[in-house]
Amino acid sequence: MIVSAACAVALAGLTILVYTSPFLAIDASIERAFQSISVGPLTPVFDFYRQIGGPYGLYAEAVVFAIILVLNRASWRLLIAGALASGWYFALVSLIIRPRPAVPDVLRVTEHPGASSYPSGHTILFVFYAVILMVCVGMKYIPRRWQPIGWAIAVLFVLVGAFSRVYSGAHWPTDVLAGLLIGVGWLSLVMSIRWISDPVLEPGRRGNERESRKAA
Predict the structure, then answer these.
(1) How many helices (H) and strands (E) does the chain have?
(2) Which DSSP state fits 115?
(3) pTM for this structure?
(4) Structural domain for 190, as ranges
(5) Which end of the chain is less packed: N or C, by CB atoms within 10 Å?
């Protein structure tokens, strides 16, 4: 709940900043610095991120739903609640009309999506994919001593995806930051609601409680 509240406060401040100043010089500076990095073989990877967050986003979400429901059916509440994070994208993108990056403010623009630039809906989905798979599947099947590696991979997945959105010129860095805040904040909120998260995070404890009530 603390993490969720911190993300909400940061998102509110960032949204006000972007609403009052759609163009931020620091955004352009950071984007040019990112775009000056040679990514080499990562270019096809960036296109994969574009696909699973955009044109094939619904299919990617369907695959994630199928994997989780097959391997950990008890997590259906958390799965559905977590997916609602995208609702914040649709709410903000209709309220904050922000132009997307353009040359010469940035070095290149290789992707031209529609709608407002703020926030990054792709980034929200990246966070959802990584966290929900790790919580619902990774924490159940990966041995506890290896779970930090699983979380490191999840974080790396999100960071590479976030970088790809800036590198392509599709989003400003603050758009991506907003997507991260929405994804992390919303998932932290739903996991703080025990009715939603307990069947996933503490299945053994709930089972013991039921047995204790029957014995009593």
Answers:
(1) 12, 0
(2) S
(3) 0.90
(4) 2-201
(5) C
